[in-house]
């Protein structure tokens, strides 16, 4: 099978998996090595290498979602209205771990100073860099049959996350990727017509 076909099949395999358990089909070390490889080899604007990542397993993974649940419960207030969110967070807790994606604002500031012509673009490019890391890691997890889904509970949990895991002030939290063993595959996916989403000229 060609490398292109392999890559395309992995792109199709990468889905949002919500039915997860903590019984990973691989070791924690293999997940860590996968993330390390992504940090080294995922591109970034101007080779800024601004992505920062924290991987949580076990009790630390559970603690993250306890923090999220407690924070959101205070915001929502009403127990009945909060039940749906509580159930959703319980699904995240059932997973094996969470990958936290950050961008280093200090690196962004340095890039702005070094290339002032593009100063307003560097924060945008930093988010694009983070997105590429998320996609690379998510697809790599799919390649070893580890399911994942991507969440965005920032900024409401940012300060508690920083305090709990001693995160540097310049690290800005962008996303949380829950991962674990796949207990139930993703359902069918609907696609909008390609011709509505893409144009080709000069062919």
Automatic annotation (TrEMBL):
Transmembrane segments: none annotated. It holds the Pfam family Nitroreductase. Residues 12-180 form the Nitroreductase domain. InterPro entries: Frm2/Hbn1, Nitroreductase, Nitroreductase-like. This is Nitroreductase family protein.
């Amino acid at each position: 099978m060609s490398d292109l076909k392999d890559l395309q099949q992995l792109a199709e395999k990468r889905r949002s998996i919500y039915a997860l358990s903590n019984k990973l089909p691989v070791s924690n070390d293999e997940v860590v090595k996968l993330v390390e490889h992504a940090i080294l080899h995922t591109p970034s604007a101007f080779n800024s290498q601004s992505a920062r990542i924290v991987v949580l397993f076990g009790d630390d993974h559970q603690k993250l979602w306890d923090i999220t649940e407690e924070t959101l419960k205070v915001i929502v207030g009403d127990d009945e209205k909060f039940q749906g969110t509580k159930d959703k967070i319980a699904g995240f807790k059932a997973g094996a771990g969470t990958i936290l994606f950050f961008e280093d604002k200090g690196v962004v500031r340095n890039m702005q100073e070094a290339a002032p012509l593009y100063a307003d673009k560097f924060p945008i490019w930093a988010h694009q860099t983070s997105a590429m890391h998320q996609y690379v890691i998510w697809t790599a997890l799919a390649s070893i049959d580890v399911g994942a889904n991507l969440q965005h509970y920032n900024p409401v949990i940012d300060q508690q996350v920083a305090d709990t895991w001693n995160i540097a002030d310049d690290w800005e939290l962008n996303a949380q990727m829950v991962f674990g063993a796949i207990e139930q595959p993703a359902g069918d996916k609907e696609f909008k017509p390609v011709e509505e989403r893409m144009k080709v000229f000069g062919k």
